[in-house]
């Protein structure tokens, strides 16, 4: 602990012991690859799970967020300056560090390697592996939706080009099949982030964190300044994009899988109401 801090609790010690063991285990794998001559051309991807356990009620902001974010009282594990923790729609619930090692591709431009702030998600793992192996999808699946994209350009120090819809977009949520404010939903498009409800957000209908919110992550990574009233058109556009994404998920469940319960994934009422009102106008 830092000077002046209380001793670590048993729960914290267990947590840090797990981290130490994980670090040691990964080190053993890397050491074995090096000893056998496979390290330089082996693709290793390591990412944290989605946020530390124990939510910070009622708004997703932990008690020590402003002075000691590294040592939250709610539970061990820190999301740093981010709002929210595991299962939250806020950044602390899903934004995590990711490390890729592949010397043959990444190169050795510097000892620190390549640092990228491109928005990468775990959906990108499959298309990246397919790209690296030169594998194509089966013909009968060639038209199926695929949210992920290969990160090989990033590993080579390049940048992704924008999609036909502009900067990269993706939906967030669906802890449960039915979308509810208890777990919330959201959407990311470039610097903009739309949030409505979250696991750590407790309150009656109309509570601030259960209302549609809009954040500019380029200047507000901690999601403290809601801009929904200042940029209502951007908010409406984000909600519309969420609906488009949701419709795509539903179409995949119905036509591109063997799932027989696609009706359980429902569109939030607030999206139906606000989006359609905006479109009709």
Question: Would you kindly provide a written description of the structure presented here, covering whatever features stand out?
Answer:
The protein is α+β, with helices and mostly antiparallel strands and 281 residues long. The chain has 6 helices and 6 strands, in the order H-E-E-H-H-H-E-E-E-E-H-H. The chain has a 4-stranded antiparallel beta sheet with strand order 3-4-5-6, covered by helices on one side. A two-stranded antiparallel ribbon has the order 1-2. Helix 5 (232-255) crosses helix 6 (269-280). The radius of gyration is 21 Å and the shape is globular. The N and C termini lie far apart (57 Å).
Short structural description:
The chain is an alpha+beta fold and 281 residues long. 28% of the residues lie in helices and 10% in strands.
């Amino acid at each position: 602990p830092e000077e002046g801090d209380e001793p670590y609790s048993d729960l914290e010690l267990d947590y840090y012991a797990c981290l130490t063991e994980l670090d040691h285990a990964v080190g053993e794998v890397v050491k074995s690859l090096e000893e056998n001559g496979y390290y330089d051309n082996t693709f290793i991807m390591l990412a944290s799970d989605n946020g530390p356990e124990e939510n910070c009620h009622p708004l997703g902001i932990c008690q020590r967020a402003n002075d000691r974010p590294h040592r939250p009282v709610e539970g061990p594990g820190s999301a740093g300056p981010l709002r929210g923790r595991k299962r939250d729609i806020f950044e602390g619930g899903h934004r995590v560090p990711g490390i890729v090692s592949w010397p043959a591709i990444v190169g050795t431009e510097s000892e620190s390697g390549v640092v990228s702030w491109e928005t990468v998600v775990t959906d990108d793992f499959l298309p990246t592996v397919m790209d690296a192996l030169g594998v194509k999808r089966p013909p009968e699946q060639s038209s199926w939706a695929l949210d992920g994209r290969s990160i090989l350009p990033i590993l080579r120090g390049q940048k992704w080009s924008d999609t036909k819809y502009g900067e990269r977009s993706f939906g967030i949520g669906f802890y449960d099949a039915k979308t509810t404010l208890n777990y919330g939903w959201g959407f990311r498009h470039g610097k903009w982030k739309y949030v409505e409800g979250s696991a750590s957000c407790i309150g009656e209908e109309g509570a601030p964190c259960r209302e549609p919110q809009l954040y500019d992550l380029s200047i507000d990574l901690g999601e403290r300044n809601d801009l929904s009233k200042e940029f209502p058109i951007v908010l409406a556009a984000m909600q519309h994009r969420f609906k488009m994404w949701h419709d795509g998920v539903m179409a995949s469940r119905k036509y591109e899988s063997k799932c027989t319960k696609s009706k359980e994934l429902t569109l939030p009422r607030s999206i139906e109401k606000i989006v359609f009102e905006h479109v009709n106008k």
